[in-house]
UniProtKB/TrEMBL annotation:
It is found in: Membrane. It comes from the Bacteria. Its main location: membrane. This is O-Antigen ligase.
Length: 415
């Protein structure tokens, strides 16, 4: 579990990892992946309890999607850039596949979720401090340190990713904590004094998400909060809960940072938010490329190079340098084609179904884990409508967590 926990933490706090490995010949990501792969292989060599007898459908879907991405790459025009993309995708999928072997009990799953929640708490604290002081504590990359809106700098917390991507990883941690905290009366946390810790993570995490001014992450947060509220739909106080939630959201508007309010009010105002032209252009170019190669797509990692071709140079908001398609689902359809998109969507759907099955477990601990994973996955998938995250490490780690929760639930049933 140690390499897997380290990977889950450093995937969100990669700026800290980059600082630690700055003078080393190998980065923390490479070290963590090597240790993770080595320990996973050792599990096949040492005596161990009987493995889970649950289905391997999730792992097969993920492997099939990657194989199709490789096939699509062989037919693509820009293979060198596609090879770099496949390397990134493989690095994101490898820990997810290792998780299926390592995390074979709810107790181990609990430790993994705690590590992701703890990483989110650290990142949230960094965001709050940076917002109040106007400094940068650990982030060093250009993407993390130069982003802003209307002259106001945006914090990426403990990550070297751009602030929006960092906010969506923080979103996962907040929804994991929130889903665990509000898992229903019959799924209480028991004697473990964890409620104050989870409540604290939710509080500082929501505050940090507000400070990041990431619209997609906040929309995902609202979607996750809606799923949590629906878990109480059979309670008599559910209508009151909905009304109180709506009143709280409206009442919080005067206290929100002006930058965040401006970013939301700019939606639909092309004069205030020039990026709206660019985002619509992403979708138009992606749709045109998908229609040109509907079966196997243009190839993984190829969209940015098609984006800068002369064919699309007059489209409004198009920039002269490569850009990603800011919609995960259209991005998958454009680069992977219809077959790859179906495999991608099938994997996500299977993960959501697995989390739902885990929620029905008679064991309160597993039911809590399933609800937390399902809520976080729904929130992240909603946020993915606005970002190109089909190779995001936290996406595939969370997909594997949801699938494994379902496998643990199936393992409780008779063979």
């Amino acid at each position: 579990m140690v390499p897997l926990v380290a990977y889950a933490v450093l995937a969100q706090l990669d700026a800290i990892g980059n600082r630690l490995s700055g003078n080393l010949p190998i980065g923390t990501t490479e070290l963590t992946l090597a240790a993770l792969l080595g320990t996973t292989m050792l599990l096949f060599l040492v005596p161990a309890p009987p493995p889970l007898h649950a289905s391997h459908t999730g792992a097969r879907l993920m492997a099939a999607m990657f194989c199709w991405a490789v096939f699509s790459w062989t037919l693509s025009e820009h293979r060198s850039e596609g090879a770099d993309y496949l390397k990134t995708l493989a690095i994101a999928l490898l820990p997810a596949l290792c998780l299926f072997v390592i995390v074979d009990t709810p107790a181990k799953m609990r430790w993994l979720l705690w590590s992701m929640i703890g990483a989110g708490a650290v990142s949230a604290a960094i965001v709050v401090v940076e917002q109040r002081t106007g400094t940068r504590i650990v982030s060093t990359s250009v993407a993390a340190t130069t982003a802003g809106f209307e002259g106001v700098a945006r914090s990426a917390g403990g990550s070297d990713q751009n602030p929006t991507t960092a906010a969506q990883m923080l979103l996962v941690s907040v929804l994991l904590a929130g889903g665990w905290l509000f898992a229903g009366k019959r799924r209480a946390l028991g004697k473990v004094p964890a409620r104050p810790l989870l409540a604290g993570v939710v509080a500082i995490g929501v505050l940090a998400l507000v400070f990041t001014s990431a619209r997609s992450a906040l929309i995902g947060l609202m979607a996750g909060a809606g799923i949590i509220a629906l878990s109480y739909r059979r309670e008599r106080f559910f209508p009151l809960l909905v009304v109180c939630g709506a009143v709280a959201m409206i009442g919080a508007i005067p206290f929100l940072p002006p930058t965040l309010v401006d970013r939301f009010t700019a939606i639909g105002d092309f004069a205030q938010d020039q990026t709206l032209y660019r985002r619509i252009t992403y979708l138009r170019i992606g749709g045109d490329l998908a229609s040109q190669s509907p079966i196997w797509g243009i190839g993984p990692g190829n969209f940015p190079l098609y984006y800068v071709t002369d064919v699309y140079r007059w489209m409004p908001g198009r920039e002269p340098f490569p850009r990603e398609l800011h919609n995960t689902y259209l991005d998958a359809l454009t680069e992977y084609g219809a077959v790859g998109f179906l495999l991608f969507a099938g994997t996500l759907g299977y993960a959501l179904l697995s989390a739902w099955r885990a929620c029905q477990s008679p064991r309160p601990e597993l039911a809590r884990l399933g609800l937390a994973a399902g809520v976080a996955l729904v929130g992240l998938l909603v946020a993915c409508f606005f970002m190109p995250h089909k190779n995001l490490r936290y996406l595939w780690l969370l997909v594997a967590i949801a699938i494994q929760c379902g496998r643990l639930r199936a393992n409780e049933e008779p063979t």
